[in-house]
Design goal:
The structure holds two protein chains of two kinds. Chain A is an alpha+beta fold. Chain A has 13 helices and 13 strands. In chain A, the strands form three sheets. In chain A, strands 2-1-6-5-4-3 form a six-stranded antiparallel beta sheet. In chain A, strand 12 and strand 13 form a beta hairpin. By secondary structure, chain B is an alpha/beta fold. Chain B has a single domain, classed as Rossmann fold (3-Layer(aba) Sandwich). Chain B has a five-stranded parallel beta sheet, sandwiched between helices. The chains are: A alpha+beta, B alpha/beta. Chains A and B meet through helix 7 and helix 8 of A and helix 1 of B. Bound molecules: adenosine-5'-triphosphate and magnesium ion (MG).
Amino acid sequence: MNLFGMLRAMSLRTKVVLPVSALLIVVILSISILLIRQQATGFRRELETTGETMVRMLAINVESGVLFESKYELEEAMNVLKRFDVVEYASVANNDGEVLAEIGDWLDDYSELSISVIEKNQSTHRDCEHYHIENPHGQEFIELIVPITSRIEQLDRETLGITGFGRALDPAVFTERIGSVRLILSLETVNVAIAEAQKTVMTLTAVVLILSLMILTSFVRFFTRPIRKLVEATDQIGRGDFSRKVDIVQQDEIGQLAATFNRMVDSLKQSRDEIENYNRTLEEKIIERTLELEEAQAQLIQSEKLSAIGQLAAGVAHELNNPLGGILGYTQFALEKLSKVDPEAVKTDDIASYIRYLTDVESQARRCKTIVQNLLRFSRSSRTSELDEVDINRIIDDTCAFVGHQLSMNQIELIVEKQDNLPVIHGNASQLQQVFTNLIINAMHASPPNTRIKLVSRLSPALGEFGGAVEILCVDQGVGMPKEDVKRIFEPFFTTKEVGKGTGLGLSVSYGIIREHGGEIKVDSAPGKGTTFTIILPVQKPATGSDTQSKDFPAATMRKSD
Amino acid sequence: MPAILVIDDSEVIRNLLSDYLTELGHQVDLASDGQQGVEMALQGEYRIVFCDIHMPKKNGWEVYQEVSKIKTQLAFVMTDSLPDELAKMAQEAGARRCLRKPFDLSEVRETVEQILSPAETR
Ligand SMILES: Nc1ncnc2c1ncn2[C@@H]1O[C@H](COP(=O)(O)OP(=O)(O)OP(=O)(O)O)[C@@H](O)[C@H]1O
Ligand SMILES: [Mg+2]
């Protein structure tokens, strides 16, 4: 992870505390170091000044002692110095460098570098030499050397009366160097004092540093705590808990932020509650609507049944009344005519017309019989009957054998595609055969010669809820049907066929049979293109009892496809 | 002899009315659906029309409306196998009678005689 990555990963507090404390440490440390330095130089300067004063005083005091080379006088003058601890060594020497008097022990050994000159300072007065030295033991000293001057010559001349020489002479001209004073001061005490001062400053620095860091962290915490609180609250809200409020009572921006945040949470909570409420009411509404729909559907089924019965009655009446009208009319006509006729003089013409009337009566009576039979079939099929296990492919074979002759007479080819190993169906074989037969005959009636009719049986992709289903398709290439007809083909007595060819009951009977099997029958047709009827039969046995049956498999499952 | 037009999709009814009315001495023409019936009624000179209600192409009520608009003197006898709105509408609009199938021949004769009687002003 690079530096930026690390920086980004740091918490806000670390981000603030780390650089600020680093800066603080640097500043405070440099200030204290500076302070110590200044203190140290201050101490040294003080010592140097004191030493210079001492050495100068000494130089003045030892003047006569040097002149007269009086050791006693010199020692007397130097004894004062013994009172100062800092004075390590002092000596007075004449111009030849010969030491006339000294106090303390000092071993000059420049040659072996055992005493090193740390620095040579220029003193305020030019005549004062000034060294900072260190002995082999690491002790530091200050060495001061001052020349000893004498004005004796001037005094001598005065006593000799040289002043009488006109103009006065500059006394400096007569100042003469007669030797030098050397003073070595120990820096020990000063260094100890410096060390002491250093210690104090260091402790102070440490205290200040620790204190300021503490103040800084608590200060930062004071700022980051509300932010942390906000973060925690946001986290909680993110997990869907809206109960948490941020309790920050500040008037500043963070306080405002917290207040805004709380408001936001409130409105969020409100809208979430609203949504939940909507959801709940929606669910309730859906349930309500579903119930309503179910009720409406039940009613619809009921009314459809009623209207189906009404339609059936109307259809029966309509279908029967024409042939009955013929029978009634011709019988009355014949009776009327015969009642007027002289039996002796019956003409052959008359007999021929009577035969014609009676033939009509017979055929109309027959038609009535067919209608009634079909009707009975229809009514029987809508009663619950025993269902056996049947093999759809067997029924198809039987049907083909039954209609095959008729088809070939009409030059129509029947193609049968049966899928092997179809599951058995709980059904009524003869009813199903009746359904298939009607489909094929219908297709045949609609098909021109030299066309094909295809009969297919296969496993249905639909109706998984029944635990599988079998599908039977009857496809023709015939005339097809317009939409208006497709809507009506399942109505009883709806037929487009000429009288004697169809009663219009075939499909309505089929409808009843298939519904009884819990299946559905669909039609897809287009004029001129042909027609496909699809029957889907569930494998499982449907619930028995006509009441539950119509509930489980309502008319809606039988779609009149359009 | 005034002519009669029979409009009915049922062959047996057409034949019966044709046979019977011819026997009674009328000239009878036949139409097997509503469209054909309208065309014939407008072209020919008829006195009475027997018109079925339930027919393909045009129902009896439509035939009545179209024809009676032009041939206001033409007498309409509606035939129907069921009590039907259309028959009632035609009768209210001015059709002379409605015969319920299966009808008696005597009803047919009575109706025809009534319409053709001298008392009849229309
Ligand atoms: N394959 C088809 N192609 C075109 N029209 C069809 C086809 N099957 C049925 N129809 C139409 O549907 C009508 C109703 O058929 P339905 O089987 O109910 O009665 P029908 O065949 O006329 O008489 P019935 O079956 O009682 O002898 C038919 O008269 C026909 O107009
Ligand atoms: Mg049929």
